[in-house]
Write a structure and sequence with these properties.
Distance between the termini: 10 Å
CATH topology of the largest domain: Rossmann fold
CATH architecture of the largest domain: 3-Layer(aba) Sandwich
Number of domains: 2
Number of strands: 13
Order of helices and strands: EHEHEHEHEHEHEHHEHEHEHEHEHEHHH
Strand content: 15-25%
CATH superfamily of the largest domain: Glycogen Phosphorylase B
Radius of gyration: 20 Å
Number of helices: 16
Amino acid sequence: MKIMTIFGTRPEGIKVAPVIQEMANHLEIDSVIVNTGQHKEMLDQVLDLFDITPTYNLEVMKAGQSLGELNSVLIEKISKVIEIEQPDYVFVHGDTATTFAGAFSAYVHQIPVGHIEAGLRTNNIYSPFPEEVNRQLVGRIAIDHFAPTNKNKENLLKENIDANNIHVVGNTVIDALLNISERKNNLSDKLNHLLSNNKRTILLTTHRRENLDDLHSVYRAIQRITDSYEDVQVIFPIHKNPVIREKAQEIIGENPRVHLIDPLEYEQFVHLMKQAYLIITDSGGIQEEAPGLGIPVLVARDTTERPEGVEAGTLLLVGTDEDKIVEEVERLLSNPKDYQTMSGIQNPFGQGDTAKKIVNYVKMKFK
């Protein structure tokens, strides 16, 4: 049985790594690993971390490439690999351009697709953009839908997906997170020093395309919080997008208790999350990971495709409204009971056995 796994971004790499590692435990599976290179440097770090060597590196990215051009190149190159390998089954993950192109290319060749992390929805096709449309389109193509939660299953059922093809398995990111969090802390001396200064650390990340025009509000909120609380510091692994860097430098770049650092490798980022007091983010993956470490998350977005965390109480939507961010951060800083309640809730996104469930299901399918 030949199974092809297609991915290209750092989050995808983190989340498919447990599935690839699990397949390696089964001699009957011939695993073909396709890295499109949508995120090159950041993804290479993840592959090294999980000791994964791709069968193919497609290197699709070019400077100034539009989304349309990227999708076109992805479909062309992935299709050629599928023609060469003739897999029995294709895994794609999540909601990136690689996800859609991989699923579409497999569909054209009439190869069944398994969608890992299926059923996430905001039902707003422009938030997040273009991820919401990518995952909806893949939902029409996939044969098997590996949904993290029952809420995701409900979303798929509303779209008339056959219940027999939906499998609630948890999220593979928890498998990866638990693997890495148990390893020895490898943070830099500088970060270890910052984290040992008896200040409460807010971890900040921003990168969403739809938030670019509103980031000044987020950064002004950070400025106000550090002005009000001398025992608080902010660590901000800042995205390489020059727009984000320019706005951050303008508003909080001179703040001595806001530490702008380069993006971290995944292993380091996990250990930084473990030591944060709370997290402000517009990332999707962090919304799943941080609750697994008992860290409250304020989501700097107006919508989330992970409402389970909001309903459970591990996540709180604050958008990019300056006053709302300040209000909720101050509540968690000033009210220990509220903080303990939010940090003590069980993670709704899985227990660390998702990859095993997915691989066992596919093995049974081909018996």
